[in-house]
Amino acid sequence: MQRKKFPCRYIPLNERGETIDSFYRFGTQDELELELGRWLKTTIEHLEKQKAKSQVALEPIEIHVRATGRLAE
Question: How confident is the model at residue 5 (pLDDT cuts 50, 70, 90)?
């Protein structure tokens, strides 16, 4: 497999598999900017959700218990 000079140009931006490279070759600048913007927004939202989940998992859980009845001696 041949190594690409700019591998980031080949990251799929949408469900159709369009990449920066395919927009450079077959699309317009406006189409590229629109799809890249959508991809960035979706990717950032996904990363923020992952970060929020990992922070919740790391937060200590505080439990308050009220004793009732007679305590064992």
Answer: confident
